[in-house]
Amino acid sequence: MTGIMASELIRQYYEESDPLKRKEILERSLEKGEEPEANQMRMELWNCRYAKRIDKKSPARADGFLRLWMTMKFFSGSRMGAFGRRRNQREVRNLLKELGFDKMKEYGRVGEQILFQECHHAARVYVTACSEDKKYSSTLLGLMSISKDKVQEKIARDTVLVAKIIPEELQMKKELQIFSEGSIQAYKDLFPNDRNFLSQVD
Asked: Which of 82, 98, 121, 166 has its CA 20 to 30 A from that of 66?
């Protein structure tokens, strides 16, 4: 997808990973009158993505887009017969609706572009978290660290699984197209020279 022009504040918005800081940045952009239509969509999508608190006593927000990513990853270990596929399809469709995918698509090209940017952002958050997570970058019950190259290979496998293989197995390629494109593009941006990954997704 081609990008839309972004102000400095909006660039900061997509660079920031903390939900509450992202909201503050977006509110400043709205106050300045930047991209009023697009920013209203971004705020609507923020409210969908971070709708749930981590716990009642904390203002910290759970990330619904990462929940979608992990749900897709979980399906790799489930049986995908006809009954299992229908159950998983229903779960994903409910989650997509909850996260505002349907609403953004109704807004047309701009809504779809903003949805793509948010999926791209979520994938970058996931990759960064995995790169810094000692459990993710370890093997043998966490007793041994693996090299950065091996961590990258592991992240690549996750991305191919979540953005390509599972959507195909669910028979939901069209419904998950923007999610898949955003996730794949995020990996390409972070690891532009990974030819093996490119051969699997192009």
From this structure: 82
